[in-house]
Every structure is written in C-alpha cells, then in structure tokens.
Amino acid sequence: MLILLQILCALGLALGVVLFLPVSLRSLSGELRNFTLLLGAGYLLCAGLLIWRERSRRPPGFETLVSSFALGFLPATLYALHIHDSVPNKLLFAELLWGGVLATVTVALRRQPALRLGLLAILGVLGLVLPIARHTEPHVVPAVRVWRLDTALYGLEVTEYRKLISPSPATGGAVAAFRDDFVVVNGVGDLFLLSRDPATHELKSQQLKPSVPINWHDFEHTFGQVEDVTYFRTADVLVQELGAKVRLFASHHYWKAEQKCFVVRVSMLETDSDRLAQADTGAATWKTIFESTPCIALDTAGPLMHFGGIQIGGRMGLLSPTELLLAVGDHEHDGVNNPDRLPQDDVSSYGKTILINLTDFSHQQFSKGHRNPQGLFVDGPEAIWETEHGPQGGDELNFIKRGANYGWPSVSYGTEYGAHFWPGDPTPGSHEGYSEPFYSWVPSIGVSSLLVLHGPEFKLWAGDVLIVSLRDGALYRARVRDQRIVMMERMPFGRRLRDIAEGSHGHLLMWTDRGAILDVEVDSGVGGGETVFKACNGCHVIGDGESNGIGPDLRKVVGRKVANMAGFRYSPAMQNLGGKWTRERLDQFLTDPQAYVPGTKMRFPGIADAAQRHDLIEFLASGANNKPPPEDPVD
Predict the structure, then answer these.
(1) pTM of model > 0.90
(2) Relative orientation angle of helices 30-55 and 62-82, to the nearest 10 degrees
(3) Domains of the chain, each with CATH number or no CATH
(4) Which residues lie closer than 8 Å to 473 by C-beta, 6 or more apart?
(5) Within 10 Å of residue 290's Cβ, how many Cβ atoms?
(6) pLDDT tens track for 270-282
C-alpha cells in the first residue's frame, strides 16, 4: 500500500506544474513534459531510497532524508535551470517544496503507519485533483475588451480581441495591412482576413484558403515526442498590391523528410485583389520563390541535434516593386551552440538579409552578420530598419546598408548566458571592426518587430520608429534626428508582442504570442478629463497604487474602498466615511469636498461644472495608468 501511495504522490507532483502555468496538461511543451517526468521519477527515487533504508532496519534520519531528496530531485532541478525560460522560479520552488513535504511525511511518520498512509493518500489525491479542477473550472474570458494606457503624448485606447484567430500549437505568426483590412497568419500557417464591421467598428475575421505550405504536422510527427517543435513555424506575412492583383508572401520553415533536414522558404500566392478583400483567393496556389541553403540536417534515428528554429528571423520587406528583402536567422549556428559560424559564411543563407528578384526569383546576399532578425521595415531604398536578438544582452536596432557586415557571431554587445563575455569576441562589450548597431539594448528586451509611423492617427508620432518586444512586453517609440536616437519612450502592454502593423487609417494592430489582436488608437474619449486632471496633479498621481504624495494615489479610485491606500495618513473624517468611491459619490465629493466630507484635509474648492466632473471621473475610471489588465482574467 505504501508503494502504491508513493506512486500516486509522484503522479500528483508531476501534474502539479499546471497549477503555476497558463497551460493545460494537453498543451504542455516537450520541454515541460520532460520536466514533469523528471519530477515524478525523482520523487519515486527519493521515496524508494527512504523505504529501502527503513526496511533495511536502519531507520532513516535527517541526513538520509536530505541526501535522498537531493539525489532524487537533482536531475529535475538541473533540467529546469537549463530550460529556465520555460520553468518559472516559482514553479520550481513550489514543486521542490511539495516533494519535500511528501518525503518528510514518509520519514517523520514511519512509526505511525496508519497516520502516514492516510496523510499520503490525502496529499496524493490533492495532487491529482487540483490540476484537473483548475482546468475544468469555467473561465469566463471576454472575447473583446477595451482598456487604456497613458503615454507621454497620447492616451491610448486598446481593444483586445482574444478569439479572432484560431489557436496555434506553434509560436510565431505575423500581421500585415491590406487596404482597409489586415491579413494575419498564425504559427502553423492558418491565414485570416481581418476587417471592420461598418456598424460596430469592431474587427471580424474570416479564414483564408489555402494555408501557408508549412508542413508543420510532418515535423511534429517526426520530432514531437523528443523536441519542442513549437519553433517550427511561419515567421512573417507580407502583402504586395499590384492594381487588380495582389501577392501574399509568407516565410516559413519546411521539413524535407527524405534528406532529413529543414530549410527556410518564402512562398508566394497571387490572386485578385477584390476577391481577397472578400476573403476569397479563388484557385490560386502557393509557389516557392526562395529556399535557404544549406538544408540543415537533423538526425531522426539517434539523439536529436537541437533544433534552433527559435532563431528563424524570417521578416520581409519590399525594397521596390520587383525586389523583396528577407532576413534569415542563424538557427544557433554561431560557433558556440554549433561549430558552424553560418552568419559569416558567404555560401550560406543563414544570418543574412537576402535580396530576392521578383521577376526571375534569383537572389543575392544583401548584408550579413545577423543573429535572429525579428523585425524588418523598408522606409525607403536607403532607409532599411532591422531588429534582432542578441544573446544575454545586445538586442539590436540596425540601419541596414547593402554589403555591410554586422558582426555576429564575431562580436556582440551581449554576452554568453551566465558569463561576462561572448566567446570569440576579442574585446567584450565592443563592436570593433564591424558595422555598429544603430542602438543596442543591455539588458535585452526580447526585441521583436518594428515600423516607421506615417499614418494620420498618431500625428505627434509621425516619423518615429515603433518597436515591439517579447520579453519586456512593451511598445517602444524611438525618435530619430540627425542619424541618432534622441528620445526613447517605453509603453508597457504586459504581453509578448510579436508583430505590429499600421492600417490605412493610422490605427496600430499588434499580434501577441498568445494569439490576441490589439487594436490601438488615440483615446479621444478621455481628453477632456485628462485636461481637468491637470488641476489635481499637483497633489495626486495615477501611479502604481503606492505613489502617494500630498494626496493619495488615484489608481483605480472608481470602485475602490474609501481611505484604503496603505501608508497615506487620511483625516479622521475620511476614515469614518466608509463604503466605496462610486461614480455618484465621487461626483458629490468633487462638487464640494468640504461639504461632502466635513473635516477632510483636501482644500480643493470643487468643480462646479457637471460636464467637467463627468469627464474627470471617466478619465479616472479609464485605467489610463500604465497598468494593463492581465492576459487571462478569471471571473
């Protein structure tokens, strides 16, 4: 019975990972599945050693408990540190703590077998039930919700669409403008046309056929049990309008099963513009116009060589009506993760920007020395912007010149993970001998896509470079003057932002790694309230909920309990008021603070104009405080 209960506890320990991750058991990645197996096996080894010691008539003590625990959980711990991006610290600590509790019960209650069996049974059942219950509870997630964000020059209104695009088992994907609409592709190549409902102004989606010709399922079938295949993906989509005709370009991986290797392809589909606007591509089919060389081999028989698809790059831009520029990542062939240094090898396509002739589909190298290009924007034949990931630090914004060498992997402003240098760089922290980045982030922000703004919506941002980030979850606005960045503004969105596009009316559309669409426009609805608030900001701020000044922080004051800001010394009169700040109560208070709360310390005479009070209250309620809502609210 004891052994059966220990197996039950090991299973519960392994399943417990979903309690700390925004995933279900079915959607666990290959790396996380391996981690759960190591956890379960590690606990069984630990418990087995303790039971063996007990039955050998040598009662296990504290030293045995510690040594058995360390021996059992060392592989899982080391593996978690190796895949640290997938295993949050809180998950690792919680699992180790849970395993420690189970092991301690096994040792401490050995002389009370009935109590030990009962407690292990309870803990084991809890370990099984809680993960399942968590994912069977109904989560009411709004399909569309509106929130606001404050920036230096604008209040932003963000409409978040969470269910427009089908979920994808692969990361990646992109968004591109087309007429008044947008074309979106997810990681496995499903295509969608996004258009606005004339009545509601909300976005709606229609799926396009055929999908991008990425053979994702073939790759998953080959490697899905031993490797994380979510990085085998569609990287970008681009729309080229040619009068009555339109071309769709898609960059993506392709698995060649017979040669046991993969490449990066650019596929093109040409169809009628008006038909595409109706989400119809007719009988059009995809055509391969570029394929990277060499085909990168992966062993399907022995232990799998690590798949570096996370560094596909894949962004595209039109240099002219007959020239397509493609950025290809190095797929970790950088002399450190792999002995090949492909970005400096002129025979290879990897770590390069490639110029593709759209007349005869010939191609040539345009620039080299790139790691993982996540953004490419052509603002003119001589104004090509590119973003790429560095290693630990050293994310780059580059101004691409034909024939230039940007140094990777010979030099970088980043370093090897866990070190203070990049192997092979003669002078750490230097970029000597190669084209310098236009700007470099240290530490890295997980830089992603970018564009230069030209539309009518954000007139005060005209000509600025907008850059989205994955790790940092923010939108950056860089103002460039005289070939240098004179200002950089960070706008937190709290999501991994994969791509950004500007629509014909100037709205911004952003694509997140969880498959959500963020429609961003100027928030004209709170402009009046923002103006009225200027009379308040001498004493109050809308901050992080802890930024009290002369007056309390007003973050989320609408609906908040009265006098509840920690650390602020309220007057006795305000402390005794009680209740919550509803819109109605705020309106009465702002009309005449002293009359509504006799004895309040607030000396502001009040706002006589009812319209101004309304605008101010709506501004306070808008959430324009740089605190985006969480991605997965649970009602």
Answers:
(1) no
(2) 170
(3) 2-134 (no CATH), 145-167+445-522 (no CATH), 177-304 (no CATH), 308-435 (2.120.10.30), 527-621 (1.10.760.10)
(4) 492, 493, 494, 495, 496, 497
(5) 22
(6) 999 999 999 999 9
